[in-house]
Amino acid sequence: MYIKLDNVNKTFGNYKASDNVSFEIEKGKLIALLGPSGSGKTTILRMIAGLEHQDDGDIYIDGKLVNGISVQDRGIGFVFQSYALFPYLTVFDNIAYGMKVRKNSKEEISNKVDELLKLVGLEGLGKRYPDQLSGGQRQRVAFARALATEPQVLLLDEPFAAIDAKVRKELRRWLKDTIDKLGITSIFVTHDQDEAVEVADELIITNQGKVEQIGTPVDIYRNPKTAFVAQFIGESVILENYEYEKLNGFTKRDNAPKAAIRPEFVQVLPLDNNTEKSTANMKGKVVDTAFRGSNVELTIAYDNLEIKASHQIEDFTVKKGDEVYFKVTRLYAFDDDNAYTLINDILKDNPEMYYI
Amino acid sequence: MEKSNSIINRILKSGLITWVLLLFIWGVGALFYTDDFLPNPLVTLDGAKTLITSGTLWTDIVVSMGRVLKGWSLGLLFAIPVGLCVGNFKVISYVFEPFLNFFRFVPAIGFITLFLLWFGVGETSKVALIFYAVIFPVMVNTIAGVRSVDYSLVEAAESMGASKRRTFFTVVVPSAVPNIFTGARLGLSGAIICIVAAEMLAASEGLGYLIYTSRLYYRTDWIFAGIFTLGLIGFLADKLLRFLGKKFLYRFGVR
């Protein structure tokens, strides 16, 4: 394994930022540390970088124990949330900083900076100062600067947090492609699920200083292992006290009184013109609708429950107050620790019901 | 219409109105008193003319400003490096800060007699006094500048392999430049205030000497001319300093 954390603990005062954190990362992978704010994800990143030091536990990079190695010598590249570009240096000098520290020759530096500027699509902007660039451009400079010293590991702290939504999407794509192209092992911190799922090969889900689950996005979406992951991933409706028994196709699972249902797990059908007859269908009333761009999120009242459903606009139109049929294809039942995926018994034989 | 608006705006912004108002009040006030007590603006201008034609005003300006510049530059040369070190190194700050926080409340004027005793009535005592007046605002601001450095810049430099020493010179010092500059400006005004006080006590030329000795000849108009010159010099010196700061230190955040 390329990067390995072994029982790492870190406390700030009374706050346990890392609680027995252990995980391993393969070389060349792009990993997202995903969790709510205060879950300790940035602390993990900073400890790998050497900007913070663990109270106990071991960190390995490329098979080498790095506990006592300072940030200067760890061979990492770090992209800060606020970019941390030197405002008094030009783009060129910002990128060249690390190479000047290494005493590379002038020619070497100039060639490398040009190459990096080309890589990040900022050719010809070397003479500009950071305040003459847009947010997205600054982010790219920060990225180029972190790469200039040819680090073994690239660490990015909320790399897209300060960029407006439109540019962010574009930049994510670009970052993923660029990192894939370079093949550098990278870890980035985010609290944005969409970002994590879209960009990362693997997710590490953190909560209250602990690692909850590690896996590919698909794996984590399909099989949340802990109660936290079941609730955190997706915008789930949570049912308490075995309420999920009221839904057609689900029976009680012992020791799993709660359930998380994602909007994607709920299918909606019109009352009329409906050729599909299934005992899984239930009749509910739409009490709220929320437009989500490509789809509409419906809140459906049924037997004292409120279920959220993601509805494609093209299928048929639904207004508030309409009655509809709906069925739940799957849900996550969980207790305080573990989560189990329950698939609708009635639909179990139907292979089309697979969603992530 | 728009054009005249912008002219009015510019006049308002230039502060010209304040000056006109001040001259007016001064002029009206002077009507009620003798020229020896409160000379009117025209009499003052006349007095200034006499001083200019005789050359004394120029000599006094040159002498005073020479002292200010000498003390101010020496003060900067001393206070900036010391401030940088105190701000950056904990151990030095423990030793130095109590001393700093005591003496910065003792005004330079309080030391005039002592400095005359120690350094004599010549130039040294005056330059030393200005030096004293300059170093405190510069040090205090420099220290504040060092301590307000964006820490992520320091971490960025270190993550690229920069040693503590290199980080100090390439991140901490440049980041402190705006504060250092503010300190230098405050130091300059402190220096001008202090030189007048020093020249009043012991000098044979300079603006302070001019103001102080004019009372011997009942030349209240000369006193006014001296005061006006001081204000003008301070005003222009600060303008010049800010202009130079903007021109050469803009990149470091001096505005």
From TrEMBL, chain A:
Q: Looking at the UniProt record for this protein, which Gene Ontology cellular component terms does it annotate, in alphabetical order?
A: ATP-binding cassette (ABC) transporter complex
Alphabetically ordered keywords of this record: ATP-binding, Nucleotide-binding, Sulfate transport, Translocase, Transport
State the source organism's domain of life.
Bacteria
PROSITE patterns (alphabetical): ABC_TRANSPORTER_1 (PS00211), ABC_TRANSPORTER_2 (PS50893)
One Pfam entry for this protein is ABC_tran
Q: Note whether Cell membrane occurs among the keywords.
A: no
| Cross-referenced SUPFAM superfamilies | MOP-like, P-loop containing nucleoside triphosphate hydrolases
Q: In the record, what terms sit under GO molecular function? A: ABC-type quaternary ammonium compound transporting activity; ABC-type sulfate transporter activity; ATP binding; ATP hydrolysis activity
Q: What general EC class does the enzyme of this chain belong to?
A: translocase
InterPro entries tied to this protein = AAA+_ATPase, ABC_SmlMolc_Importer, ABC_transporter-like_ATP-bd, ABC_transporter-like_CS, Mo/tungstate-bd_C_term_dom, P-loop_NTPase, Sulph_transpt1, Transp-assoc_OB_typ2
What is this enzyme's EC?
7.6.2.9
Which positions fall inside the ABC transporter domain? Answer: 3-233
NCBIfam families given in the database record? 3a0106s01
Q: What is this protein called?
A: ABC-type quaternary amine transporter
TrEMBL record, chain B:
Tell me if tRNA-binding is a UniProt keyword of this record: no
> Any idea where this protein resides?
Cell membrane
Q: Which residues cross the membrane?
A: 12-33, 71-89, 101-121, 127-146, 222-241
One GO BP on record is:
alkanesulfonate transmembrane transport
Major site of localization recorded for this protein: membrane
Task: Report the PROSITE patterns cross-referenced here.
Answer: ABC_TM1 (PS50928)
InterPro entries assigned to the protein according to its UniProt record, in alphabetical order? MetI-like (IPR000515), MetI-like_sf (IPR035906)
What are the ABC transmembrane type-1 domain coordinates in residue numbering? Answer: 57-245
Alphabetically list the UniProt keywords: Cell membrane, Membrane, Transmembrane, Transmembrane helix, Transport
What's one GO-annotated cellular component?
plasma membrane
The record's listing under SUPFAM superfamilies reads:
MetI-like
The UniProt record lists the keyword Transport: yes
Topology versus the membrane: Multi-pass membrane protein
Which family does the UniProt entry place this protein in? Belongs to the binding-protein-dependent transport system permease family.
Q: What is this protein called?
A: NitT/TauT family transport system permease protein
User: Which organism's genome codes for this protein?
Assistant: Pseudobutyrivibrio ruminis DSM 9787
Q: What is the lineage of its organism?
A: Bacteria, Bacillati, Bacillota, Clostridia, Lachnospirales
